[in-house]
Amino acid sequence: MKILITGCRGQLGSQIINILKEGASELGTIPQDYRNSEIIGVDIEELDISNLELVKSFINEVKPDIVINSAAYTNVDSCENNRDLALKVNSLGPRNLAIACEQVDAKLIHISTDYVFRGNGTIPYREYDVTNPVSVYGETKLLGENYVRECCLRYFIVRTAWLYGYNGNNFVKTIMKAAKEKGHLEVVNDQRGNPTNAEDLAHHILKIALTDEYGIYHCTGTGECTWYDFAKAIVKFKEIECTVSPTTSNKINRAAERPAFSSLDNMMLRCSVGDEMRDWREALKVFLEKVKI
After folding, report:
1. Active-site option among 73, 137, 155, 228
2. EC number(s) (predicted)?
3. How far is CA 101 from CA 49, 53, 111, in A?
């Protein structure tokens, strides 16, 4: 089996590669079908996914069985001021991969986000709920989803949220560093979602990829909290001498609006391959025991 992973040096891409090489994740072993797979990891330096001709040529030459697209322009505020770049990476990139995958009969797993939803609800969003993003990031990610659905038949769209992993920067590492340096933090308490360990997400992506259960999936940590709750848990679990106080989103000057409630329901996982995502607190504890800052 030949597996192409875009965004290979990011939080998720690097985690998927590690699990494939080890044959197991923190949740357990992965299917034996992956044994002796050829793993091809690319990032922007090796393949600019926004260039259709380059993508078609590369995939036609490699002829992968599975393509996992974890490449994205994820700086939410920066997307507001760089709309063209956000469109190229988050929308045209997935479109190009979908077109190329269709030509070589490859499966495409495309990673998307909770930010495709407006965030004005009170019940976790299911895969079939109406999308209505409030930011350029969310809009371009939604367009990317639509292109994938239009341009290839064998696709999995996997929406996740509040992702953190061992490689790269994320909220958990930022809070740990700031807590040690400052001793006091103010964190927003009016946005709710699902913290997701990249290890759990990667494990489930590899479960899904071997099936023919095509469609849209939500894949996030079990349970929900606010960013304030999340930060308090990080400080508590790491036993850092730091006080954490709640604040509101309108007190923070940000270019992009965030959904106030973007909790996702892993309904499709439960109804297909099974939902083994850990409780967000449990997954966070394990992560904090291993990560070094």
Report:
1. 137
2. 1.1.1.133
3. 12, 13, 15
State both tokens at 282: 């449990």
Tell me if 255 is assigned to some domain: no
The pTM is what?
0.97
State phi, psi for 226 to the nearest 5 degrees: -95, 165
Q: In whole angstroms, give the CA distance from residue 264 to residue 189.
A: 18
pLDDT of residue 123: 97
**Phi/psi at 41 (5° precision):** -100, 130
Q: How many domains does the chain have?
A: 1
- 257 lies in a domain? no
Concerning whether 147 is annotated as a catalytic residue, the answer is no
Is residue 177 domain-resident? no
Give the CB-side neighbour count of residue 51, counting CA atoms within 13 A.
Answer: 10
User: Residue 139: which domain range?
Assistant: 2-170+194-222+264-279
CA distances for 96 relative to 152, 206, 232, angstroms: 10, 22, 41
Q: Judge whether 264 and 220 are in contact, CB under 8 Å.
A: yes
| Interval 48-80: pLDDT, tens | 999 999 999 999 999 999 999 999 999 999 999
CATH number for the domain harbouring residue 163: 3.40.50.720
Distance of CA 51 to the CA centre of its chain: 22
| Tens digits of residue pLDDT in 220-277 | 999 999 999 999 999 999 999 999 999 999 999 899 999 999 999 999 999 999 999 9
For residue 182, tell me if it sits in a domain: no
